[in-house]
User: Fold this.
Amino acid sequence: MKKINLSSSGLLYNDMKELSEEDYKLMESAIEATQDSYSPYSKFKVGAAILLKDGNVITGSNQENAAYPSGMCAERVAIWKVATSYPNQKIKKIAITAKSSNKTVDKPVGPCGACRQTMLEYELNQQAPVEVLFMGEVGKVVKVESITSLLPFSFDSSYL
Ligand code: THU
Assistant:
């Protein structure tokens, strides 16, 4: 028997002002995208911004529905926009943020499991890592170098 270490590494910034100019701008786009969130049920507005290799920025926000499971997360809205409108472009990074009308979100908001799995599919297909940055409305920012580091023992097409 051998012990398995599941720790993954990343960077923790105290504030988005510590980010590089490229990352800061992308996070600003994610913040802007929260304005288009349709979240009357959760009151939790999520914004995602994807930087493509050609410099284009594609955004998405969460879209809810009166039939709750019919809604969709910001990250998947954004990544499927890329998949359908920019199918040949590689993704460099994605920035995610959220705010709530119930409270100040002061912890970094990591992508949900389904979004991690969805993003992994495209990262594996493009054979290049996708950096992920996430924060709340205020405070610390987490940055990881790849979707893979957010999903240990992940499932992918190699099993099929
Ligand atoms: N949400 C996202 O947009 N992304 C995530 O990764 C987590 C959750 C949305 C879904 C729902 O509209 C609201 O946040 C509350 O769960």
About this structure: Helices lie at 21-33, 74-85, 113-126. The mean pLDDT is 97. Residues 50 and 56 are 8 Å apart (CA to CA). The longest helix spans residues 113-126.
